Amino acid sequence: MYICLCNAISDKHVRACAGQGRCSVSDVYKARGCQAQCGKCAKSIRAILDELAPQP
Ligand code: FES
Description:
Blueprint: E1 2-4, E2 9-10, H1 11-19, H2 25-31, H3 42-52
Antiparallel strand pairs: 1-2
Helix pairs in contact: 1-3
Bound molecules: FE2/S2 (inorganic) cluster.
Residues 4-7, 36-41 line the site of FE2/S2 (inorganic) cluster.
């Protein structure tokens, strides 16, 4: 499912970035060679990253 329509970033892309140790929203954009445009996806990307973050 696409999370970022502006840059065609899917939830799989976000999960792949998290699996490589990338953990910020901007790192997800960088990994895809793009940057935020409208910014509407940032909250959804952050939610996936938080879901995958190691628990203390
Ligand atoms: Fe991601 Fe617009 S939906 S920058």
